[in-house]
Amino acid sequence: MSPASPLHIVSTDRHAPPSEEVFERAADIFRLMSTPVRLQIISSLCAGEKNVSEILGEIATTQPNLSQHLNVLYRAEILARERRGNQVFYRIHNHDVVALCRTLCGMLTADQDQHAHAP
């Protein structure tokens, strides 16, 4: 991913407020990840590359809908893809976005577990 990409996460000096560009990039990432199916795709591919059929076996959606979301994530450079014969395999390309998703989903899962075990 190139540094000019809108989804490249920029580290900033902790003492300086984030620039407008950082906020714009963050908003782009959150807009892109605002669909549960896309989060499920990323979660599925964290285990390794998969073809469309394998991903479809893990996510309750239609093949056309899955393909549309895969294409959005590919165009945003979050996923990479490779054609092998008549199959297309996808894998994670932008590990910064994956780390963000894992952190947020982990926090929400821990919060949900805490509330489930509360008296």
Automatic annotation (TrEMBL):
PANTHER family: ARSENICAL RESISTANCE OPERON REPRESSOR ARSR-RELATED. The keyword Acetylation does not apply. Residues 18-112 form the HTH arsR-type domain. This is Winged helix-turn-helix transcriptional regulator. The keyword Transcription applies. The lineage of its organism: Bacteria, Pseudomonadati, Pseudomonadota, Betaproteobacteria, Burkholderiales. It comes from the Bacteria. Keywords: DNA-binding, Transcription, Transcription regulation. GO terms for molecular function: DNA binding; DNA-binding transcription factor activity. InterPro entries: ArsR-like_HTH, HTH_ArsR_DNA-bd_dom, Metal_resp_trans_reg, WH-like_DNA-bd_sf, WH_DNA-bd_sf.
